Amino acid sequence: MVFQVSEDEGAKIRPREETTREGILRLIMERGPISATELARLAILTPAGVRRHLVALEDAGAITECEKPGQREARAGRPARYYVATDAGQNAGATSYHTMANAALDFLRENLGEAGVAEFARRRERALVARYRDVLGDTENSVERLRRLARALTQDGYAASVRDVPGTQDGPRHMIQLCQGRCPLRDVATQNNFLCAAETRAFHELLGVPVQRLATIASGSHVCTVTLHANSV
């Protein structure tokens, strides 16, 4: 979070408002792949206004075009353009903590072996459960529990969203996904994928149902995704 000092209030600190361009990048991380039309609707901007920001973000290397799954089959003619965040976009505003974190984990592995790494993973899992358990509250509504978790993850920088798996909404096997469009731990998790496994186990404990990890940013996907049965949460 970026802070600014108010001249009128001396040393009082308050968060800076998100700029329009930062908001568009956040939406791309949360909802990508996403079209300019959908971005305009969500950001309450004209299509031309959104495209100006998209051009600037592309020029800065923060986003890139991609093909949305099923796009070619959906319609003939020129397909709409869809956007996802690049590695540079994922790291916007990030610090260089990962060098020290990777060194610390290497030291742990060298001196305590895999048993030490496994214990660290268990502690990481417990820490995640402790952080988000109260956020879920006592509601038993499946979608609401997942949405609460997504909102809390977004506040922690994960750009999370909840999505239906296309084609399953009306059937008995309605599937939903928790998608994280940004991973603050990406540069550490790339070398230490046990962090992703610990997160998956934490989500399982928080939601009380099996969750399946489909993709991670650390392994090269543009979004971290877990899926679960909507009717079983």
Automatic annotation (TrEMBL):
One Pfam family per UniProt: HTH_20
Domain of life from the UniProt record: Bacteria
Official protein name in the record: HTH arsR-type domain-containing protein
